[in-house]
Amino acid sequence: MARVFIVEDHPVVRKGYVAFIRREPELEVCGEAASAEEALELLPSANADVAVLDVSLPGEMSGIDLLRELKQKFPNLPILVVSGNEEAVYGDMVVGLGAWGYVMKGNAEVFIQAVRAMVAEIQAGNQ
Question: Taking the domains of the chain in order of start, what are their residue ranges?
């Protein structure tokens, strides 16, 4: 069972991610955060195998800032970045900062396929 931590400020979107993940027998949600600050507080005790991170977050830290911080604190944590923006806007940048990948919001199947692929890669030891 792979443990997924979700960082998403919109409650409806976050609940959607949780619902998609809970439908997958090999996945479970180990925590949720609505801001970067909340994620930094909760993630250390969540024992997450992977994280899903929204680019646009409220507060003083953006999703990009959080990605940088998480890669410093948890360098081996695979992070999937999600955004409503086209891949050309953030895709290359977040991967260059250490994200496992980038997907646009709006397609549940693409989202869950990306989470499954990320989990399969870490389970294969190719992180």
Answer: 2-123
Main-chain dihedrals φ then ψ at residue 5, nearest 5 degrees: -105, 135
Task: Please tell me the CATH code under which domain 2-123 is placed.
Answer: 3.40.50.2300
Contact 111, 76 (CB under 8 A): no
N- to C-terminal Cα separation, the chain = 17
pTM as predicted: 0.93
User: Per-residue confidence of the chain (127 residues) as pLDDT tens digits?
Assistant: 999 999 999 999 999 999 999 999 999 999 999 999 999 999 999 999 999 999 999 989 999 999 999 999 999 999 999 998 876 678 889 999 999 999 999 889 999 999 999 999 988 885 4
d(CA 18, CA 37): 20
Kindly tell me the number of DSSP H helices and DSSP E strands found in the chain. Answer: 5, 5
Please tell me the total number of residues recorded for the chain in this structure: 127
Longest pairwise C-alpha distance within the chain: 37
